[in-house]
Write a structure and sequence with these properties.
This protein is α/β, with parallel strands linked by helices. Helices cover 40% and strands 14% of the residues. The chain has a 7-stranded mixed sheet with strand order 2-8-7-6-5-3-4, sandwiched between helices. A 3-stranded antiparallel sheet has the order 9-12-11.
């Protein structure tokens, strides 16, 4: 008899199970946890978007679409993005979530041995997707302020570097790259002939940027923009995102989608078209209040950097404790969080998601304060 492990690929073994999903599974077994762990909006999909999905299903829009997505949605996104960036953004591909777009972008651009540079802390998929395709993640420390330090990044660039991955607003830190940081990143990309992947899934959640998000795509056409509907409209389970950028690269991503996701969910693409006309200002205002609540409650007890976007904060664990140790103690007190080493090469911090009710958030923060 052959043991099952004999069939498992080295590729699969090279990747750890997500620490976020482990906590997600733990939460499902707890009676009433104070869950500050998962980046899951606590508001529901807007009614107008639900109705559009139902109408699309009832109208028979349940078959495969073109691999690249339905034309009305792609055309609308291309028009909106081109207006936002002041230039033709290029081609648009509807993806199965931003994570699907990220996978396709890396598959389309990275050969074994190619390098991609990104900041630490980082979104968990960057490192592991690169490993899956045989690429090399080159991780640049951004502690203690989590900002883009061009001199540190440039030292990490080699002749094998192909990608510069930017995440703004950041998961897990909530940091939003400034105009000067974006300009510095674009200058590096130009000088070293790098492609930029700009992960902008949290773009709507900006709390201190009245002019909107500074994106590398404004000034640098060699940028793949990744955005979606999961966070903005609470459509996390609908798996809808989009990629926009140079036509030659989007064409390769579209080809690869034929052999992976096939297409994004058909009726939900029509719902996404409706979502573009649903204002979400109230949700953004609510999360700004939640951000202020958690900052006020944790300041003075924890070392924190003010999050300017998304719905995360990344405090430092108390002196003498690792992030993992502090999270384990918090879980014993019914507060679920994610240890920082899930997103980092360090184990010094922890991530709080404030995408929960004000009541739960206040309770959780008070428990954390009592632990210091």
């Amino acid at each position: 008899m052959i043991d099952a492990p004999d069939y498992i690929s080295r590729r699969a073994l090279a990747v750890d199970a997500s620490g976020i999903r482990k906590v997600f599974d733990l939460a499902a077994k707890m009676a009433d946890p104070i869950n500050l762990s998962i980046g899951l909006p606590d508001f529901d999909v807007p009614d107008a978007v639900k109705r559009a999905a139902i109408e699309a299903i009832q109208a028979g829009n349940n078959r495969y679409t073109q691999t690249q997505g339905i034309a009305p949605l792609r055309n609308r996104l291309r028009q909106d993005l081109s207006t936002e960036f002041g230039r033709d953004i290029g081609e648009v591909l509807i993806t199965s979530g931003v994570s699907g777009g990220l996978l396709l972008a890396i598959l389309a651009t990275i050969d074994p041995g190619d390098e991609a540079v990104f900041l630490d802390p980082y979104f968990v998929m960057y490192k592991h997707l690169l490993t899956l395709v045989g690429g090399k993640p080159v991780i640049v420390d951004s502690y203690p302020d989590f900002r883009f330090h061009a001199d540190r990044v440039e030292k990490a660039i080699t002749p094998k570097t192909k990608l510069l991955i930017l995440g703004t607003p950041s998961n897990p830190t909530g940091i939003v790259m400034s105009e000067s940081e974006i300009a510095a990143a674009v200058e590096l990309a130009k000088r070293h002939r790098l492609l930029i992947i700009s992960d902008e899934i949290y773009e709507p959640f900006l709390y201190d940027a009245p002019r909107g998000l500074s994106s590398a795509a404004r000034a640098y056409p060699q940028t793949i923009v990744l955005r979606g509907f999961s966070k903005s409209h609470a459509m996390t389970g609908w798996r809808l995102g989009y990629a926009a950028g140079p036509e030659a690269i989007i064409a390769q991503m579209t080809k690869l989608q034929q052999y992976t996701f096939v297409c994004a969910p058909s009726p939900l693409q029509y719902a996404a078209l409706a979502a573009l006309d649903v204002p979400m200002n109230a949700a953004v205002d609510a999360y700004r209040r939640k951000r202020d609540l958690v900052v006020e409650r944790l300041s003075g007890k924890f070392q924190i950097e003010l999050p300017q976007g998304a719905f995360y904060i990344f405090p430092k664990a108390p002196a003498g404790q690792s992030g993992s140790e502090f999270v384990a103690k918090a879980i014993e007190r019914n507060v679920l969080m994610i240890p920082g080493n899930v997103f980092s090469e360090r184990d010094t911090h922890f991530r709080i998601s404030y995408a929960t009710s004000d009541e739960k958030l206040a309770q959780g923060c008070d428990i954390l304060r009592s632990m210091v």
